[in-house]
Design goal:
The chain contains three helices and eight strands; from the N terminus they run βααβββββββα. With 152 residues, the chain is α+β, with helices and mostly antiparallel strands. The protein has one domain: START domain (Alpha-D-Glucose-1,6-Bisphosphate, Chain A, domain 4). Strands 1, 2, 3, 4, 5, 6, 7 and 8 form an eight-stranded antiparallel β-sheet that branches. A hairpin with a 5-residue loop joins β3 and β4. The N and C termini lie far apart (36 Å).
Length: 152
């Protein structure tokens, strides 16, 4: 896995950035910024430490898919860490085998730092080598969308 890092400055409190990013007040705020990855993106589960959460969307044929993950850490307005454990293939969770072995256990970490009403959001992602280009291209777009949603 390759470690990638992305940053964005958002003119809002860390509380607002955190709540908008996770969709805690309105789930649609999460769905809007993650639409950069998949237009049907959503999540099922909760953001509490230790909880299972699935990041779900449908492909161009309407088939459900996504990632099976766990919240490794959640300190409100400060850090969120997600451990990816497998994939969803329709209703089937695949958490072992060749389909997931190259990235299972990978982390997606978010760090929030607010100074004078401006939040610096840093994202560190463990990326499967096969998806580095896609992730490197899409994450900045998603963070720009999160910035727009949060600031408006």
């Amino acid at each position: 896995m390759k470690k990638l890092e992305f940053k964005v400055q958002i003119n809002a409190s860390s509380k607002k950035v955190y709540e908008t990013m996770l969709g805690l007040v309105h789930k649609t705020t999460y769905e809007n910024w993650t639409a950069e990855f998949n237009p049907t993106s959503t999540y099922e589960g909760s953001w509490n430490k230790g909880d299972k959460i699935c990041f779900v969307g449908t492909d161009e044929n309407g088939k459900r898919g996504g990632m099976v993950s766990e919240i490794a850490e959640n300190i409100p307005f400060t850090v969120v860490s997600i451990r990816h454990n497998g994939i969803l293939d329709g209703e089937t969770e695949i958490t072992s085998g060749v389909q997931v072995e190259s990235w299972s256990g990978g982390l997606e970490n978010y760090f929030f730092e607010e100074i004078d009403g401006v939040t610096s959001l840093k994202v560190k992602v463990d990326a499967d080598e096969n998806y580095v280009d896609y992730i490197s291209e899409t994450w900045p777009k998603a963070l720009q969308k999160l910035k727009e949603i949060t600031e408006n």
